[in-house]
Amino acid sequence: MSLVIAVTYVLFLVILTEALTEGATKSVLFKPLRDKLSGFSNWLKELLSCGYCFSLWVAFGVVFLAQIHYSLTGNQWVDLVLTAFVVHRLSNILHNIIDKWTDKYYSLAYINTDKSDE
Fold it and tell me: Is residue 88 situated within a structural domain?
């Protein structure tokens, strides 16, 4: 597999993980399902309210279903888990970039400053 194809696969998995996480944890469309599932346990309630937490599980699912992983250790299962962690983390970075550039409440004036100095 060429490097370009490998990077494209990971980029696709990262974008898919971020999109599925945002849809599941924040969209109005899935609110009834979130509310119903949150009633089953505190763990599910916390999971569905935390995009960072939920994206880890989404990344595991996406990587497992796609069966796309980098051969790092030679053990397929370990490599799937490690790839999922990388996809999870990169999807969080992508999420932060998207939030910072599209959030109407975010101001670039506060980068590297202490807001309490006002």
Answer: yes
CB 99 within 8 A of CB 106: yes
The torsion angles phi and psi of 45, rounded to 5 degrees, stand at -60, -45
In a domain, 96, yes or no: yes
Query: Is residue 100, in this structure, part of any structural domain at all?
Result: yes
- Diameter over CA atoms, the chain: 55
Tokens of 56: 């880890």
pLDDT tens for each residue of 80-97: 999 999 999 999 999 888
Supply the range of the domain harboring residue 101.
73-105
Count of domains observed in the chain:
1
Q: String of b and e for 54-63 (b: at least 16 CB within 10 Å)?
A: bbbebbbebb
Per-residue pLDDT tens for 35-50? 888 888 888 888 888 8
